[in-house]
Amino acid sequence: MELLIRNAIKEDMSSVLKLIVELAVFEKEPDAVEISEEDLIVAGFGDDKQFDCFVAEADGEIVGMALVYFRFSTWKGRTVHLEDLVVKEKMRGKGVGKALYRRVMEYAAEQGVKRVNWVVLDWNKPAIDFYEQTGATILSSWWQVEMEELALKKFIEQKE
Amino acid sequence: MELLIRNAIKEDMSSVLKLIVELAVFEKEPDAVEISEEDLIVAGFGDDKQFDCFVAEADGEIVGMALVYFRFSTWKGRTVHLEDLVVKEKMRGKGVGKALYRRVMEYAAEQGVKRVNWVVLDWNKPAIDFYEQTGATILSSWWQVEMEELALKKFIEQKE
Fold it and tell me: Is there a contact between B146 and A136 if contact means CB atoms under 8 Å apart?
């Protein structure tokens, strides 16, 4: 297998969207994906660029992707956030994920950030083990909080 | 008490940094803050703007702040991330935090995002209760992962 990790181009966004949906299914949220290919093209390649994306190409086919953007830590300054790293199911266990992961870390080092951050599901032990082996730290006492669109609307409308 | 919530200006960054340090002490990581006032000014008010900041002014004194920036969800598109919300210890319990929180949610609604996200420490029950009362959801099964600068350097240098 010839594996190539490269920066994504607009034309990859259709394959990238398929991988995003595949990850949502794996994470047991098959209906959570509201984004379109066009949204990805505008956000990734428009004037107001919102992310960077790497793809893994095996024998000419897109088999994986990693999507990153900057965040701002009030402790460390700029950080790189790894939002998604997905490998097509049939291609798992062949080093594709590791190659994408390494590319993300190289990118973060090139950008000179003091930290890379991402999240993991508590039941995803193989991922947790892998991250720890590479030197990452799991912070299980920091919980995610989300205010969704409808709840936000409702909250705004409430009298104080 | 006359309370004003407004957009931060450069000149507020000295007070904002003091609040950042106060929060780090509360979170039991007093030495974690590596950022300077100058870093905040460059990141918040330079050409490559990395965050937005709101401050709470009570009788002319800065007594709280909230710092936000955009993230990109591959499920929802652009989201607002609330990185920090801090109120000076002596001013807690007077509605300052709630006023800042409301301003952040209004900002998110103005920006048209589908989600606001932030994190909370699992032992911070008053905060968790407050967030849930306002309609937010706590996702305790998503854990934070961090690769710090030294670990990153070490990982990059390893042979594959």
Answer: yes
